[in-house]
């Protein structure tokens, strides 16, 4: 089995299922586990480096309006790798190549690889996508999914009831949607922005007025960048609110197994614990 993964979460899923050796191509963002970095890169971004969050937002909106791509696919590399399965997504055109682009490229190349499209919108969808990928690559997802469900059940026993706002972008302010509101609920909090299964979207700062905990989890960024961006959030939210920066890429933004780690991280924050300093940092 030769697998090309065009989504960091799918790469993580494949490795978790024990199919890491079968993964022959990845995207420039596939960085977990570390072995994923050794695979040939077949997809990269067209965004220039070094942009601020506000500049990224402006460029993305401009290119979307013009119908321009945010990602490129290395057709030559894809042809050379001769995959049996290509895993892509149909969730967000800003996050990765979508199914249409991939299918058209494979048709052009005359490649007969099976295209597997994941589209998780909620926490149960993420578990289903693990099962979907496992079926496509001939692996058994039962022990992996069972372990994740058991961990979720353990976290659900903790109910802090604290009001939580998770910020997915800071300029402009985006409230996190999709599975993130569920992450808050399972961790024992009360979500104040974003809708379960709904798209993340622009919100007003007033929507965070009632939050007791504000979590800055900017999509596409790790902990250090999140902590830097959180400094601007501190100035805009209630004085009494805790403000936390988290490693969004690892534990919030990617719909893979480590979302459960993110829920456990949230539960620790809401319960007044001391989270792993490599995963989260209290800014105020």
UniProtKB/TrEMBL annotation:
<protein>
    <submittedName>
        <fullName>Cobalamin-binding protein</fullName>
    </submittedName>
</protein>
<dbReference type="InterPro" id="IPR051030">
    <property type="entry name" value="Vitamin_B12-ABC_binding"/>
</dbReference>
């Amino acid at each position: 089995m030769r697998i090309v993964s065009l989504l960091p979460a799918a790469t993580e899923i494949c490795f978790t299922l024990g199919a890491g050796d079968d993964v022959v191509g990845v995207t420039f963002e596939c960085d977990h586990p570390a072995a994923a970095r050794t695979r040939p890169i077949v997809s990269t971004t067209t965004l220039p480096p070094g942009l601020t969050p506000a500049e990224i937002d402006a460029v993305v909106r401009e290119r979307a309006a013009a119908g321009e791509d945010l990602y490129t696919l290395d057709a030559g590399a894809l042809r050379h790798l001769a995959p049996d399965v290509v895993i892509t997504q149909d969730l967000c055109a800003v996050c990765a190549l979508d199914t249409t682009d991939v299918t058209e490229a494979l048709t052009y190349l005359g490649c007969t690889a099976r295209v597997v499209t994941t589209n998780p919108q909620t926490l149960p969808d993420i578990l289903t996508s693990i099962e979907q990928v496992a079926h496509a690559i001939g692996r058994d997802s039962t022990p992996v999914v069972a372990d994740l469900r058991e961990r979720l059940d353990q976290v659900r026993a903790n109910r802090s009831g604290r009001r939580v706002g998770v910020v997915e972008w800071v300029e402009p302010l985006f409230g996190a949607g999709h599975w993130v509101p569920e992450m808050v609920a399972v961790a024992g909090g009360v979500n104040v922005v974003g809708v379960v299964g709904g798209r993340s979207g622009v919100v007003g700062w007033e929507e965070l007025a009632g939050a007791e905990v504000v979590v800055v989890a900017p999509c596409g960024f790790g902990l250090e960048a999140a902590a830097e961006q959180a400094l601007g959030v501190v100035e805009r939210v209630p004085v009494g609110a805790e403000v936390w920066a988290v490693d969004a890429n690892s534990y919030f933004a990617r719909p893979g197994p480590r979302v459960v780690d993110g829920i456990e991280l949230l539960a620790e924050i809401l319960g007044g614990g001391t989270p792993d300093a490599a995963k989260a940092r209290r800014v105020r």
